[in-house]
Amino acid sequence: MKLRLKTMQIASAIVHFLRMYRYRIQGYKNIHKSVILERGLNLDKVCPDRIHIGKNTLVASRVTILAHEHVKRDPENRFIPFMADTYIGENCFIGISAIILPGVKIGDHVIIGAGAVVTKDIPSNVIAVGNPAHVIRTGIVMNSRAELCQ
Question: Model-level pTM?
Answer without folding.
Answer: 0.89
